[in-house]
Structures are given as structure tokens and as C-alpha cells.
Amino acid sequence: MKRNARDAIIDAAVYLFNHKGFKGTSVRDIGDKAETNSANIAYYFGNKEGLLEYCFTKYYEGYLREMEKGVASLEDGAVSCLKKTLEKIMLYQFDNSQLTRMIVREMSLDSQMVREIMSTYAMKEKYFFQLIFEHGFANGEFRRESSGYYLLQLKGLLTMPFLNTHYMTEVLYLLPQEKYFADKYLQELYSWVDGRMNSQHQDKKMLTV
């Protein structure tokens, strides 16, 4: 089935924003890549900034829906809930790897749009993670440390595969776009949670020493 012009524009924009950056991509570039009249960009999105805003909204609304699915299992325990939430996030990111890479890149820059994202979607993400952390602190599942530092480290782990794809492929010979990598990386995330946060796992290690 042939894609409609709107979908083609979105796909072209994500590709070009990844390879040339937002500022380095023109409306004409997007129209040429999408094989459509560039006037359609104005019709559907207003302008290039409106198209970028749509990409941010599309990404974060899907991202937070997956987080909500993970957080819904909080009554099963904080460790289990955190792992399930990380699974939902990572699979969402790998299923949308081009969009994720573009969003992560743009979020590293200072702009009015990024500041607006920080005050809305990023704050909701923080709220979900803190719900899990506080539950884990309260029932003794997590070692009581700064939730801010836990979140900082988790964000680094979650974004790393999409920030350094050339390093991973050219130096480490890893293929982050392959499913086996997503599965293996998720197990590494679980190991980090157990080794860094899970107080019960730490207690078991001490008993076996």
C-alpha cells in the first residue's frame, strides 16, 4: 500500500533530522525525500517547527503509554515493576529506533521546544519513576539513595544505544538495530537494577560470600 503524503513527510523528516540535524534540514529537503510537494508540510504541520513538535509529541505520548503499562504492575513489587517498565520503554525505543535517535539528539540541545518538553513530558516520566522508587524505598526493596541519581543513571542507560550508534557498530561491532541486541541489553539493565538498586539482591550476595 502506498503511503500517504503525511506519513511520507514524517518518515522523511525523522530520517533527515537524524542525518543532517533539524537546522541543517530544509523544508525542500523533506519534500524531496518524501517525494511530495513541500507545500504539503505547511498544510499538515504549519512549518518545519510544527513538524518537529509533532515528532516530539508522537514519541513521548507513546513512550508514556508504555511507562503507564509498566507502572500498573507496582503492586507486584518495586523491583518487578521497574524491570517491567524498563522492558516496555526499551522495546518501544527499539521498535521506533529512528524516531528515538532523533528525539534523544534534539533533547541534548537547548531550545524553547525542548524546555517545553522538559516541563511536561519529562516531568511526567520523572513522576512515574519516582513512584516506583518511593515504593521500593518504603518496602525495603531498594537501597535508599537519591532518586535523582538513580534516574540520572537509568536515563543514561536507556539512551546510550541511540546516542552512540556509530561507536557501537564501528568500535564494538554491535548491531543495535537487531532484536538480539535489544534482548541482551535488556538483561544488562536488569543486572544493573539488581546490582545497583535491589537491596534484597545485595543481601543475598553478602550471605553467599
Summarize the structure.
The chain has 209 residues and is mainly alpha-helical. The chain has 12 helices and no strands. It has 2 domains: 1-46, Arc Repressor Mutant, subunit A, CATH 1.10.10.60; 56-208, Tetracycline Repressor, domain 2.
Structure description:
This protein is an all-alpha fold and 209 residues long. It has two domains: 1-46, Arc Repressor Mutant, subunit A (Orthogonal Bundle), CATH 1.10.10.60; 56-208, Orthogonal Bundle (Tetracycline Repressor, domain 2). It has twelve helices and no strands. α5 packs across α6 (97-107). The protein is elongated and about 60 Å long. Mean pLDDT is 90; it is low at 205-209.
What percentage of the residues does DSSP assign to strands (E)?
under 5%
Radius of gyration: 19 Å
Q: What is the string of helix and strand elements?
A: HHHHHHHHHHHH
Global structural class: mainly alpha
Average of the residue pLDDT scores:
90
How many strands?
0
The CATH architecture term of the largest domain is: Orthogonal Bundle
| Helical content class | over 70%
Name of the top-level CATH class of the largest domain: Mainly Alpha
Brief descriptors of the model:
209 residues, mainly alpha, Arc Repressor Mutant, subunit A, Tetracycline Repressor, domain 2, 78% helix, disordered C terminus
Topology:
Blueprint: H1 5-20, H2 27-34, H3 39-45, H4 48-71, H5 78-95, H6 97-107, H7 112-119, H8 121-138, H9 147-163, H10 165-170, H11 179-197, H12 199-208
